[in-house]
Amino acid sequence: MNQPVTSPPLTSLSHGGGCGCKIAPGVLADLLKDMPAARAFPQLMVGIETADDAAVYKLNDSQALIATTDFFMPIVDNPFDFGRIAATNALSDVYAMGGTPIFALAIVGMPVNVLPRQVIADILRGGESVCADAGIPIAGGHSIDSVEPIYGLVALGLVHPDQVRRNADARAGDVLILGKPLGVGIYSAALKKGLLDDALYDEMIASTTLLNRAGPDLAALPGVHAITDVTGFGLLGHALEMAKGAGLTAAIEAVRVPRLPAAVGFAEQGILTGASGRNWAAYGQDIDFAGHLPATERTLMTDPQTSGGLLVSCRPEDADAVLQIFTRHGCTRAAVVGQMMPGRAGVSVL
User: Fold this and answer.
1) What is the rounded average pLDDT of the residues 258-268?
2) What amino acid positions are annotated as catalytic residues?
3) Distance between CA atoms of 69 and 6, rounded to whole angstroms?
4) Is the pLDDT of residue 4 over 60?
5) Per-residue pLDDT averaged across 269-285, rounded?
6) Please, which residues have CB within 8 angstroms of residue 247's CB and are 6 or more apart in sequence?
């Protein structure tokens, strides 16, 4: 296998992995429901109101600061790959707002008496390599001795205030375009069962370490109205946030949704993460899921995507330009997957 095994294996030290570690969306909504609105801060362009990907604060007429943080437990046993995946995932939130990262801070929690120091150093080295690829430094951070290994970043970026792309601004008639295929959570579950061969592992790593650097170019298109990234809540969960923010129905065409090659086969064998079921339990009542679709489609669309793709809502006439931007930045499997339509604020899977 292409996955050097640490002693002990990283995934054996955590109760979950990657974005599957996220608190279930229903529980999170309940925890945040009494948080006060930030009305006293008029320069705060994006806060927690629509569960967007990052906070955005207007500095002046030409600059807004994007701030986000993301961290999780290991999704793979290779420490260098774990660091790369976690860093790519954290930077994605900056790109999803239409911004360009400027620097990052490391978040490190490690069982220092359990893991060899070289393993921890390799995790940090993996994160640093991704930031170097993004053209930014890791300028500091914070570390603690923890029971489970945790790694991630605070990521900061800049964007012109006119090019901030929220998840709540989709318009009726827009098409939905997904930048990466689904199935990362399913692959991670297969990995834990020893069913992921070298080629499939390489596919998972290629997807989860591909930076979503298309974000700023997408935001520069006037016809792109909303962007979010698909992570722990799955395609349905993040499409639902987009639909609720806009007060529209997100109609997803199952047959058009790209997926990693072996994802369907694994799903048919019942290989999935616990987060998939938690996601459906949290938001299934807002999903109109066509009864004739196989159960594997629900598994795929609720599958937590660690470092998943950008979901773009744009005018139909700009769809080709969006796809070209995705392709130019390495997202060669990007595809039109649906449309925003008038109707109840929810998701319809066709």
Assistant:
1) 96
2) 19
3) 27
4) no
5) 92
6) 345
The string of pLDDT tens digits covering residues 327-349 is 999 999 999 999 999 999 999 99
Listed in order, strand segments (DSSP E) in 201-264 are 224-229, 249-252
Task: Give the CA-trace dihedral at 256, 258, 259, 265, to 10 degrees.
Answer: 30
State which amino acid sits at residue 326. F
Q: Which contiguous run of DSSP H or E holds residue 281?
A: helix 274-283
Answer for the pair 283, 29: CB distance below 8 angstroms, yes or no: no
Contacts of 255 (CB under 8 A, 6+ apart): none
Q: Are 188 and 74 in contact (CB under 8 A)?
A: no
Task: Retrieve residue 313's tokens.
Answer: 């809502």
Tallying the residues shown for the chain, one arrives at 350
Rounded Cα gap, residues 19 and 156, in angstroms = 20
| Whether the predicted pLDDT of 209 surpasses 60 | yes
Look-up of token digits 């930076």: 211
Rg (CA), the chain: 19
Condensed to tens digits (0 to 9), the pLDDT of residues 83-141 reads 999 999 999 999 999 999 999 999 999 999 999 999 999 999 999 999 999 999 999 99
